[in-house]
Specification:
The structure is a homodimer of 361-residue chains. Chain A has 361 residues and is α/β, with parallel strands linked by helices. Helices cover 43% and strands 15% of the residues of chain A. Chain A has 13 helices and 14 strands. Chain A is elongated and about 90 Å long. Chain A binds a DNA duplex (16 and 16 nucleotides) through helix 3 and helix 5.
Chain lengths: 361, 361
DNA sequence: TTGAAAGCGCTAACAG
DNA sequence: CTGTTAGCGCTTTCAA
């Protein structure tokens, strides 16, 4: 109502294709006109600049005009002018995977804490989509980047870094994790040590014929977890049977299919280490269907400690990555760079992990 | 390297607080200078405007300069100029809830299809956070809005609608769902009918003493699912025992706690309808702990068909909302409005649902 | 076939 | 205490 009147001549704009007319957003100029001041003043009361000097009367007049017009500052204009968007991007393979869902939630909460919005990208672990996600940072849409990628290396990140866009990644999954001098801040999850701990737990339970449902080939998690598996066996003097190392998709279906294959092998393994909980749960289901008792006939260990791990039957022994905390941690590192609080070389924070023994082993 | 040189005088800018110097992003002006043309021409080759007229030679020179400088158009400038951001916002209570995780994934995929990026907001079902999410749309950061809110009504959406920002919501959860003339497009999930179907299934199994773990008070899902529950009982001539209607949080903990309460009631219910799968899973765990067999002693039905529902033991009978499809559907509606392909009155699409009978009932 | 210039809405240096 | 002015990087009319 008052908004309509105050917009003055030409205050409305034709809706596209003849729908209801749409109001033009009021601008600072509109507010200034309504309050009888210059646009500058409006900007100043908006931003609280010139704290001492402005007269109380003017400020109130402006505030009132803003209220009447329903003025809301145009972020796109602020973004251009201030050269920042107060938005960060989070890149993950798949938000539906509870591990990344929790991770994103941590990112989200921490980002809000610092006043940042969050743009999310699912890459499904495909390089082209991962690159596309970097593109949004290159085009100035976001101020920084967190997340994890499977197929990017330092040269992919370089253009961003050169332009001063800070990047903080979930490490231990990055291809360039082995570089001497990391280029981006990372929270590193020591996948190999964690995997090793899990497999050693299996060995401690008396197993020697231990299979691994290793995940998708050519991905960092796969690589690191398999490495941990091999080291655990080697450390205890157990020979690796390559036939016990099985590829599979990182989800229930993958675990289910691969487990069926494993059940046909002779002799059967007495324990299996699944590269993530989704795989482990799929394996659990395969066993149940085939009448194989867990853990009596076969022990199954998982990885990630997603919420469902505690809920399946038998409850899954797994390794916790504290994923929500990782997301928060990452944003904290990023925020320090965005604020300029920290400007030093790349940092690596080693994330902890816990072996969580439940019923499946 | 070439980028450095080509930026020419003043091409670098001091990093904040003395870190490595950071390159200024090349602009169209930089490209124009390098190619010996005007900025206008650069813009034209970038956007393919003036398709016929430009000389091949010029175009190539410009393209080459772009490549050398590593030019990427500044989205914030485009946003301001074009008055659109190619970004939409998705508002959900909690992305960690698999129902919304899947929903978001659907939104994400469909949005990318149409060239839109996605800004996500978790509200935890709190009105203030829901309003904050609307704020980003008001400030011009996004071109449209999808998602679901618990505590907003038509008056909250009005300012956005007035400004021509299209909104498409997951209905059946909205407070103004009962309005004669809905103001926003909705994909409506008929919670009440679906809940009714579930409860009737329980009755068909011979149960008459049926409890409901109803979820959080004063939320639309709670309201609608409880209504379906009441109607099912009424329809079969079963009196409602108000003591069998229990509040709980929409998660496993809530289901667990409420179920323990229910197990203490005398006489015990022989079946319980949980307002979502997370609640149902919590209830399952409570039963297992107390040695109550499901479904023999108590049958449990859920709602949502999250992936874990098929994986718990016993596998959960539930009702599927086809949630990923809902997200896609919503974005499709939104995209039509953004493109101007559709400009008519608000549409409501009734979403289907399926009763999925597994082992828990 | 190309270029000059206006302006999207805002911030901030500077002048009065 | 308030206003003038110059852009941020881009698109798009209009003129040459």
């Amino acid at each position: 109502m008052s908004e309509d009147a105050a917009n003055g001549a030409g205050g409305t704009v034709a809706g596209r294709n003849g729908s209801d007319p749409v109001l033009r957003r009021p601008t600072q100029a509109d507010v200034a006109r309504a309050a009888g001041v210059s646009q500058t003043v409006v900007s100043h009361v908006l931003n609280g600049t010139q704290p001492k000097s402005m007269s109380q009367a003017t400020r109130e007049r402006v505030l009132e005009a803003m209220g009447e017009l329903g003025y809301v500052p145009d972020q796109t204009a602020q973004n251009l002018r201030l050269r920042r968007t107060m938005t960060i991007a989070a890149v993950v393979p798949d938000i539906v995977n509870p591990f990344y869902g929790l991770f994103i939630r941590g990112v989200q909460d921490e980002a809000r804490q610092h006043g940042y919005d969050l743009l999310t990208y699912n890459t499904d672990g495909h390089r082209d989509l991962e690159l596309k996600a970097l593109g949004v940072a290159l085009s100035g849409r976001v101020d920084g980047l967190v997340g994890t990628t499977f197929h990017l290396d330092e040269t992919d990140f370089a253009p961003l870094l050169r332009r001063g866009v800070p990047i903080c990644m979930l490490g231990g999954q990055m291809s360039f994790d082995d570089l001497d001098e990391p280029l981006v801040d990372t929270v590193s999850v020591p996948d190999d040590s964690a995997a090793r701990m899990m497999v050693e737990h299996l060995i401690d339970r008396g197993h020697t014929r231990i299979a691994i449902l290793a995940g998708e080939p050519d991905t960092p998690p796969r690589y690191n977890r398999e490495r941990g598996y091999r080291r655990a066996l080697a450390g205890r003097g157990i020979a690796v049977d390559e036939d016990l190392i099985r590829d599979c998709d990182f989800n229930e279906r993958g675990g289910y299919d691969a487990m069926l294959g494993l059940l046909r092998s002779d002799p059967r393994p007495t324990a299996v280490f699944a590269a993530n909980d989704l795989i482990a749960i799929g394996a659990l289901i395969a066993c149940r269907e085939r009448g194989v008792r867990v853990p009596d006939d076969i022990a199954i260990g998982g990885f990630d400690d997603i919420p469902a791990a505690a809920l399946v039957y038998p409850a899954l022994t797994t390794v916790s990555q504290r994923n929500q905390a990782i997301g928060q941690q990452l944003v904290r590192l990023l925020a320090e760079r965005l604020r300029g609080t920290y400007t030093g070389p790349a940092r690596t924070i080693e994330n902890g992990f816990d072996l969580i023994v439940r019923e499946s082993t």
